Amino acid sequence: xxxxxxxxxQRKKNSLNIRSPYSEEEIRSLIKQAKExxxxxxxxxxxxxxxxxxxxxEIANLKWQDVFHSKKGIxxxxxxxxxxxxxxxxxxxxxxNSLYKEQNKPIPNSYVFxxxxxxxxxxxxxxxxxxKIAEKSGVKYRGTHxxxxxxxxxxxxxxxxxxxxxxxxxxxxxxxxxxxxxxxxDEQLRELQINLIKILNI
Length: 202
Known about the structure:
With about 200 residues, the protein is mainly alpha-helical. It is about 50% helix and about 5% strand. A hairpin with a 5-residue loop joins strand 1 and strand 2 (about 85).
């Protein structure tokens, strides 16, 4: 018997302890701590996560030649091998320029988020930068991926066009959006279910 393939994207299975995006208070604490640490790289990472929300691997693979190749934006090596030009605002440009000067104007082929231990960083190096900021700020580290949920939720509130959604997040299908947009009503329903299970002792 042939199984008919579905043409819809299935929502990820949610457990009752699903991780919600970082709260506004948590984000403010992270930003404050990054500024207090006075590390240009930390501030740049947070700004990227909060305004574009690239995947950690996309941030790790970012080279200086990707930053300065075009005045229109930066080149991101997207998941799947596609290279995408992403427009950036003047504040992000200034942050990149500050880090470039701090690193003594490295060669174009070097990595933006390289460190003293590794010339070529990976996603774990990006995790570690955020972990350190979170630990010092008192915010529970819940990964970098949640910033994509944060930004997707903000885009949804602002009624951002689907074409912009797809371009910013590097998606091919607009139906993926349903996985990333956090609905508070969903969370309230889950809380009600938990309370009912406790009350009814089932």
